[in-house]
Amino acid sequence: MNPGRLVRAAAAIATVVAVTMAATNATANPFLLFGAPLQPLPQAPVERATPGTEDRSEAPANFRRHVVDYRTHEAPGTIIIDTPNTHLYFVLGNGKAIRYGIGVGREGFTWSGTQTISRKAEWPDWTPPAEMIARQPYLPRYMAGGPGNPLGARAMYLGNTIYRIHGTNDPSTIGGRVSSGCIRLINDDVIDLYGSVNIGTKVVVLPLQARSVAVR
Fold first, then answer.
1. Which of 66, 73, 87, 166 is catalytic?
2. What is the pLDDT of residue 80?
3. How many degrees, rounded to 5, is the angle at CA 56 between CA 79 and CA 95?
4. Most buried among 13, 35, 124, 138, using CB within 10 Å?
5. pLDDT tens digits for 43-70?
6. Cα 46-48-49 angle, rounded to 5 deg
7. Rounded to whole angstroms, how far apart are CA atoms 93 and 135?
């Protein structure tokens, strides 16, 4: 065969092989037909809902947490609930206390006495007691803990009673008388208080006619 023809034949065969290989690769990865393979676009991080807390600036000024002068014979570490004035005091000693704004029981549901914290829970589940369901049969029988739960971010259970000191998903109720006897704080405040108390902490609930003595 003419040497020139052999060269041209070899070149033709090489071209066919190259085209075949390119087609095979393109079938496995069609983006190769357009040059370098396309890189996957970076994905934006997925934001996951995290249980949040309300800023205490949402509470009215006179119900925002701060240290006040407070005269009491109770020992440091005691919680005093001033039902008439819708304040809770955490006694520091030396005539000082941290004062928190609270919501208390509505008319007919206030109570007084001395209890101790028997249990603490973070983002507690809510199982309305039978007494509450009897009055409000539309209530859920159970609600898992979380931002939508009426008990809010923390709960401190009082003795063997049905009452708790807990957070709330409705800061507008602070300073009000709307509960069935439980004491509520905004979530930011209940988290702060929760970190300061232990199982066995004494809780004094003052009667409606009592008047505590506190000065800014």
1. 166
2. 98
3. 35
4. 124
5. 333 322 334 444 455 667 789 999 999 9
6. 150
7. 41
Instruction: Report d(CA 115, CA 176) in Å as an integer.
Output: 22
- Interacting residues of 141 by C-beta distance below 8 A, sequence separation 6+: 127, 128, 133
Average of per-residue pLDDT across 112-120? 98
200 bridge partner residues? none
66 is catalytic: no
Contacts of 42-51 spanning 24+ positions with Cβ under 8 A: 49/147, 51/123, 51/146, 51/147, 51/153
> Cα torsion for 9, 15, 21, 23, to the nearest 10°?
-120
Name the token pair of 8: 């041209």
154, 126, 156, 161: which is closest to 141 by C-alpha?
126
Among left, alpha and beta (phi > 0; psi -120 to 50; other), residue 172 is alpha
Contact 110, 208 (CB under 8 A): yes
Q: Identify the bridge partners of residue 101 per DSSP, sorted by sequence position.
A: 87
| Catalytic residue flag (residue 182) | yes
Residues 101-113 pLDDT 10s: 999 999 889 999 9
Residue 26: the pLDDT is: 42
Q: What is the pLDDT of residue 45?
A: 34
What are 130's two structure tokens? 């039978």
